[in-house]
Write a structure and sequence with these properties.
By secondary structure, the chain is an alpha/beta fold. 43% of the residues lie in helices and 13% in strands. The strands form three sheets. A seven-stranded mixed β-sheet has the order 2-8-7-6-5-3-4, with helices on both faces. Strands 9-10-12 form a three-stranded antiparallel β-sheet. The protein has a two-stranded parallel sheet with strand order 1-11. Helix 4 links the parallel strand 3 and strand 4. Helix 1 runs antiparallel to helix 9, helix 2 runs parallel beside helix 9 and helix 3 runs parallel beside helix 4. The two termini are 41 Å apart.
């Protein structure tokens, strides 16, 4: 019997039924505009305020520090571009890493064309930024450091608390410098505490934690100045104009509540599934390379390169057998270039092109992983038989 197994939860997640139940009334009877002062509007406003509290509680922030956005991309754009534009009088130098999501990297590249200077920190073979490199890159005109909490392709967790501590120390000496972290892949997977991290800005996205697509949030520490990117309304404390999408905001709030309440249990179960999968892959398949640090990473991501196997070919082979995986970030799908994240680890082009991301979700079961372990070795063997490079290697 044909079955479908979804192992691409870093691209997006299915909406939790409890989230759907919470948001449905705001698609029908509770349809008011949250900016209106009559009953319908105030009913919507109360729902938005509740969701703001729920999001804030997940990351240990104040409700008035939460700005709702259309997703992680907009949150990153508002954080990086908004901070840079609002504070350019203090300097025009930005520090980020080689493995940031394109929602940060592309903004930095655009700012680079407009007069800002950007330093891209290396991550070495473990996929982690070194604090000594960051410290050496800081200049008197550095105003922003943007380093993601966890990478979307390999799952490695960056030393964000150390970065936050460094930034706080610099500010105590009078430096005008701020710290943003893209926590889209980390939120709901590991504990996130903006006070412990010490960040000034933090991005998160709803569809990565079982809420709908099209909703996200940006944490903005009190006192941080941003130049609004969406203008034309006074919503979100004039940081993001536009009528609030109440049903999506309600959904994000509920998803954050569920993520907070179930985080330890979900993280432990996902890590167990992933570790079993990786242990078995090591036993059953040769020419396997695990990408990035295997300890300091989120519990749901496994990124593996298979020698003499094209990632796209393996993805298609698995999809034909009902298994959905990814060759990297969903935002860069369609690109024929090797993953820049895997290349940043020092992998050659063959291994970069042979990388597959398996990202597990709370709906996945041990039975599904066992099915994957039956299918995967056969798929790799069949693809290797078609590879001239592998045939030559075997003949040696």
């Amino acid at each position: 019997m044909f079955r479908r197994i979804y192992l691409d939860n870093s691209a997006t997640t299915p909406i939790d039924e409890r989230v759907v139940e919470e948001m449905l009334p705001f698609l029908t009877g509770k349809f008011g505009n949250a900016s209106s002062i009559h009953f319908f509007g105030q009913e919507a406003r109360a729902a938005v305020d509740k969701a703001r509290h729920q999001v804030a509680e997940l990351i240990n922030a104040r409700p008035n520090e939460i700005v709702f956005t259309s997703g992680g991309t907009e949150a990153n754009n508002l954080a990086v571009r908004g901070l840079a534009e609002a504070n350019e009088k203090y300097g025009k130098h930005i520090i980020t890493s080689e493995i940031e999501h394109s929602a940060v990297k592309s903004v930095c590249e655009d700012l680079g064309k407009r007069g800002w200077e950007v330093t891209y920190l290396p991550v070495y073979k473990n996929g982690i930024v070194r604090i000594e490199d960051l410290r050496a890159a800081i200049r008197p005109d550095t105003i922003l450091i943007s380093i993601m909490t966890a990478n979307n392709e390999i799952g490695t967790i960056q030393p964000v608390s150390e970065i936050g501590k460094l930034v706080r120390t610099l500010r105590e000496t009078g430096e005008k410098i701020w710290f943003h972290t893209d926590a889209v892949q980390a939120t709901g997977k590991i504990p996130i505490d903006v006070e412990e991290i010490g960040c000034d800005l933090l991005s998160l996205s709803g569809h990565k934690i079982n809420a709908p697509k099209g909703i996200g949030a940006l944490y903005v520490r009190r006192g941080v100045r941003l130049h609004a990117q969406n203008i034309g309304g006074r919503q979100e404390r004039e940081r993001r104009g536009g009528t609030e999408s109440v049903h999506q905001i309600v959904a994000l709030g509920k998803a954050c509540e569920l993520a907070k309440n179930n985080l330890p249990e979900n993280a432990s179960r996902l890590a167990d599934l992933r570790n079993k999968f990786e242990d078995e892959v090591s036993e059953r398949i040769s020419g396997v390379f695990f990408n990035g640090e295997r300890e300091k990473r989120v519990p749901n991501i496994s990124n593996i390169s298979f020698r003499s196997v094209e990632g796209e070919g393996l993805l298609i082979n698995l999809d034909l057998q009902g298994i959905a995986v990814s060759t990297g970030s969903a935002c860069s799908s369609g690109s024929l270039e090797p993953s820049p994240v895997i290349r940043a680890l020092g992998r050659d082009d063959e291994l970069a092109r042979g990388a597959i991301r398996f990202s597990f979700g709370k709906e996945n079961t041990l039975e599904e992983i066992e099915y994957l372990l039956e299918v995967l070795p056969k798929a790799i063997e069949s693809l290797r038989k078609l590879s001239p490079a592998y045939s030559k290697e075997q003949a040696k």
